[in-house]
Amino acid sequence: MADTHSALITNDAVVLGLLAVILGFIFKTSSSQNSFWVKFYKYVPALLLCYFLPSLLNTFGIVDGHSSNVYYVASRFLLPACLILLTISIDLKAILNLGPKALIMFLTGTFGIVIGGPIAILIMSAINPEIVGGHGPDAVWRGMTTVAGSWIGGGANQASMKEMFAVGGDIFSVMVTVDVIVANMWMAVLLLMAANHRAIDAKTGADTSAIEDLKNRVQKYHAENARMPTLNDYMTIIAIAFGITGLAHFAADILGPYFGNNFAWASEYSLNSKFFWLIVISTSIGISLSFTKVRHIEAFGASKVASSFLYILVASIGLHMNVTAMFDNPGLFIVGGIWMLIHASLMLLVAKVIKAPLFYMAVGSQANVGGAASAPVVAAAFHPTLAPVGVLLAVLGYGVGTYMAYICGLMMQAVAP
């Protein structure tokens, strides 16, 4: 793992500049008609590069992604602004018309994480019990409860598990690395699959008519209402996005501590988390405004501004990945890999049985494993108009995350050697 003191660049302004240049390079080359780039992007999705190239900065010690505040700024300021702009243009009726398969795949993903942890411990116990052993606060099963919290809900649920199961600092720091690397590798697989979703859906015989209808509705709206944006339009978009973001932060700063101080059960549902409230309030206001004339800001490019925020977030997520870290504790990464493989296999199996489109499988999985920060990213890889579906499922993940992770934790405790 890159050391804060040995990182070549520690100034976040420089880091942000590097990420901006990387994103600019990727977008410039991905739209190039040069034969080399056309062939290159035929096999390598541009979105995957937006995520992978920044990870090299962290892997090779150029930037220490964990000490940088770029991700914090992107997730606390740009993410809610992005969600607001994306949900304002949402067609809620069309999303509800997507049917129950999206919810089925989300719940399948949750179930896969809950049973995957205990099964991974049992498998590794048969191979090498020492890897999943340990006693007291630093017992491996305790550390794995924080991964369960993260993979079903998010950071707030992860912190809840750390407190509920009295997880030691040493095992927690290792498990954070396992969480980030394994989850991000699965996200990379999902992005690769998203780039080929039409071929995969055609092969499985999935019915994508509802998804296509949603995309067509948005494209029709664009065609009928789109116009050349002016500075006034852009300033209106910025005012709405960051004005509501500020309001959401203001409310979250009150609601998080209020629930945490007055309701003992609040932490079980992440209601004591400011980030939880930030995402819920931002999304709720955005959806409510989608029923008003405010949704017309989409006609002059609201979703494009939102997408630019989203790509900065993607690049900042990449900064947290250090590929070489898996060699520090290879046994625990194998456990994490088995766990994720169980989740992924169950998702693919159920999707095949119910003939669910790849979109439902990918977003249902990422709404669990990645939460609100990356579920919209995977959804947008299919089409920008689908990002709000990822947001809505991820918010559901926050609600069930702590409860289901707690059950997973008890099961892992029961099977631990």
What does this structure look like?
This protein has helices spanning 12-30, 35-43, 46-59, 70-88, 92-96, 101-127, 140-152, 155-164, 169-195, 197-204, 209-225, 231-262, 274-289, 302-318, 330-353, 358-369, 375-382, 387-415. It is mainly alpha-helical. The two termini are 29 Å apart. Helix content is 73%, strand content 0%. The longest helix is centred in the middle third of the chain and has 32 residues, at 231-262. Helix 13 runs antiparallel to helix 18 (387-415) and helix 17 (375-382) packs across helix 18 (387-415). The protein contains 18 helices and no strands.
What's the helix-strand series?
HHHHHHHHHHHHHHHHHH
User: If you compute it from the alpha carbons, what radius of gyration comes out, rounded to the nearest whole angstrom?
Assistant: 21 Å
The overall number of domains is 1
Average residue pLDDT: 85
Distance from N terminus to C terminus (CA atoms, Å) equals: 29 Å
Give the overall silhouette. globular
Counted beta strands: 0
Largest sheet: none
* Uncertain runs: none
Count of helical stretches: 18
Helix content: over 70%
Beta-strand content bin: under 5%
Indicate the structural class.
mainly alpha
